[in-house]
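G., before I forget:
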Amino acid sequence: MRQLFHYLFAVVLILLFWSLVSLYFELSRGVALIPYPWGVAAAGAEMWPEWSAAFLESARRFFISLILAFAGGVPLGLFVGSHENINRWFSPLIYLLYPIPPVALLFFLYIAFGVGEAVKVVTVTLTLLFQVTVAAHGAARNISPSHILAVRAAGANSLQLHRHVILPAVMPQVFTSARVSVGLGITMLYIAETKLGIVGGPWSGLGNFIEIYRMRTDLSLAGVVGLAFLGLMFYVILELLERWLCRWKYAGKS
Amino acid sequence: MISVRDLRIEYGRGRRRTLAVDGLSLEVGDGELVSVIGPSGCGKTSLLLAIDGLIKPSGGRILVLGEEVKGVRKDVAFITQDAGLLPWKTVRQNAELALRLHGFPREGVREILRALGLAGFENRYPSELSEGMRRRVGIARALALRPKVFLMDEPMANLDTLTRERIQEIILELWHMYRFTGVLVTHDIEEAVFLGQRIVILSPRPAKVVEVLDNPGMGEPGYRRSPEFYEVVIRAREILGSPEGR
């Protein structure tokens, strides 16, 4: 409840600042170069079917990418991180590929995956995948030896060790890293949707929406607001998921 | 029950090779509680890990219940230094862990937790407990297996005096109740004397047995206030050399 209040406060603050900037331009240039928040809201409402379709489309892409990144990155990071021999060979590989932004390879991704749906999901998945893999890999290399000893002494085999010790131990770091990467992922999604954005209609993603209506500033800003909500939504989803899956971390702290 | 003959444990290879245990022999009878004491880093923990089948000795033989040790046995429980509780599991889940890993039915855990004064804390996480309670959960996890052999690696390390003595008394009570065969590794002389029918004194690394003290008076909580107790403590201290023997 308290947190909700803080978010509302932040929204009010941003709207106020935005209005002031719009006012400044209107007074200094004589025209409202930057539309006021209410103007943007009205434009969004006018184009509601396109806007909401674009939002859902982007959200769907991001959601699929997030699931794929978790499903691929967590096992990969754990596997490489918890086997010393494999780590020696594969961790340089991960850290070499990790800094490459997938959009830098967008042209090649188009060649590989076409200009349709797949390439957008692949771009975002690759971005999130490396973040999650690196977090899981780092955490797997720092697991308390006393936990491993206690569970092995209680008779655990390798699979049980992963299930009861390694996986739960890395989850908090994986979630933190995924939350931090939401912004980066949204950026990548925006770029992937904007390039060749005119191919799809305004309803086929917020990037397309912004690209197509770039001459109508109130509408394109409505698309930008959509991106902000998209980021916030996934941030909150990941936060809630972490509070549920890693509730032991919050035990006794209310 | 437990028979260790000419045990030799090495770590590392080539130039970095260290000998942790060399030529150590030890017999622990059925239902006997033996404490093992020696300078820190002398290889006490290695000895326990080898008896539990967690590390492979490079020489010698270990028999538990007449069988050569090949891996972790279901009738041998191991209590580690800091109890090794998993912070993401509740008290009950931690106590059930050994049963679960071996695929045994998870029965009797509630009673064990109650007997150890943990009733009402079953759904708490380790971070919500005091250090003394955490150690008791570690004991509960070992006890849940109803083991024939208890291996204890400094289960009272880093506890304040009163808590330490309380846990020592719990271990004594449990030994009277279940008559398990126990090996307790410690670097605390008084603890070794309080909980060992025999006290095995090890040399600095590589560990081997220097002397075995008989301690017929042990077995009652009041023992630690008796003159015999102090006699054995002083004797052990003399053998260990330095005043604190650490």
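The longest helix of chain A spans residues 158-194. The mean pLDDT of chain A is 89.

More on Monday.
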